[in-house]
Amino acid sequence: MNLGVGVYYDDDGKVPLLECVLRAERLLVEQAAPRNYLPIDGLPAYDRAVRELVFGANSTAVGKDVW
Questions:
Q1: Residue 2 backbone class (left: φ over 0; alpha: ψ -120 to 50; beta: rest)
Q2: Angle at Cα 21 formed by Cα 17 and Cα 27, nearest 5°?
Q3: 0.70 surpassed by pTM
Q4: Are 52 and 62 in contact (CB under 8 A)?
Q5: What is d(CA 52, CA 6) in angstroms, rounded to the nearest whole number?
């Protein structure tokens, strides 16, 4: 294994699928849970954070709850 570049390589120069990753993937598939979707409006906290980032935290646009 060559960890010099932060990637696992085998003796043939290929990136192997680690056994622990394979087992974890199998567990995820076996224990599949229902997938929830966000409402069409998205997450209010995320929307507010984006408005603060784009317009500035003190902008009047940040104080609005609905666009």
A1: beta
A2: 135
A3: no
A4: yes
A5: 36
